[in-house]
Amino acid sequence: MINTLNGWMLFLAIMHFVGAAFIFLGGCFGAFGAITLLAVNPLWGILTAVQMLLVLVLGVGLVAEGAMLVQARSALSKVVASDVDDQKFLSTAFQRLKFFFMLELVWFALNVFFALLGLVTALVAPEMAGGGLGGLGGMGGGAGYDPGGSW
Amino acid sequence: MSDFGQGGGFGAPPGGQPPGGGGFGAPPGGQPPGGGGFGAPPAGGPGDGGPLAHIPFTPEDEANLSGMAKFAMFAGVAAIVAGLIQSIVQIIQAFAVGSATPGGVGGQVCGSIIGLGIAGLLALFLFKASTAVKKVVETDDADQENLVAALSALKAYFMVKGILVILMIVLFCCVATGVMFMGAAFASALGNQ
Q1: Which residues, given as ranges, of chain B have pLDDT below 70?
Q2: For chain B, what are the domain ranges?
Q3: Least enclosed by CB within 10 Å: which of A88, B19, B76, B82?
Q4: Is the pLDDT of residue A124 over 70?
C-alpha cells in the first residue's frame, strides 16, 4: 500500500514540476513582452510585469508542493525499506504532508478568488465573461483543473 | 494489505526503557535487565505478527502528526467550500451568459455538479486521513490499524488527483489535436479558394 501511495505521490510531484516548468516558460516569455510593452505603454507594461511576477510565484508554489511530495515519499520509502527509526521517518513524512496541505489551502483560496472574479465579471460585463469564459470560467469553474491540483 | 508487519518495524522510543514488559524490536545498546520494551501489548503483539496497539512517538513526532491532521482537515473543508462556491458561481454564470458558452446552460450545470462531486470525494479522503491520524496520536488501542487507515485514505486522495491529472492531459491532447486538424483543414480550404 505504501508503495502504491509512493507511486502516486511521485507521479503528482513530476506533474507539479512539469506544470511549474511550463509556468516559468510562460512567465519568461511574458516578461519579455512586458519589457517591450514598457517602451510603448508604461502602465500596461508595469501591469503585465506584475502579472508575470505573480505567475512566477505560482510556479514557485508548484515547485514547493512537488518538493514536499518528493520528501514525504522518500521518508515513507525508508519506513518500508528499513527497520529502524520508523517513527522518525513517519513523522518526517507527515510533516512534509502538513506543508503540502498548507500549500493546498492557498490553491483552494486562489480557486475561490478566481471563481468570485468570474462571477463579478459575468454579472458586471456578461459579454466579456462570455467571450473570455475559457479563462475565467476554466479557472473558477468546477470542471476546470488548475496546475496546483485543486478542483 | 499493509506494508507494516514485514520486518521489525517500530524500534525503540527515545527516553529510556521502562522495566518489564514485552517490547517492539530490539532496543539499541543491549537489553536492560528484565527485558526492555513498552509494557505488554494488549492484544496481538509484534511477536505473533499482529498489529501494534501502541506506536511510541516522541512529543515532537506527535506534534507533526497532529499538525498534518489539522491541515488535512482544513484542506478538506476548503475543498468543499471552494467546490461549493465554484459550483454556485458556474451555475450563475451559466444562467447569466449561458447562451454564449459552448456547452450551454446544461453543460455548465453538469460541469459544476461533477466538480462539486470530485471536491467532495477529495474532502472525504482528507477527512478520513485526518481522523485516523488523530486517533493514532490520541488513542493507544489500535495505532497501527489507524496508521494504515490514514495512509490508505492518503493513497486514495493522491490516486484520485493523479487520475484527474491524467484525464486533463488526455483532454488537452485531444483538444490540441482537434485544433490542429481543424486548423489544417481550414488552411487547406483557404488555399483551395
Answers
A1: 1-51, 53, 97-103, 193
A2: 59-162
A3: B19
A4: yes
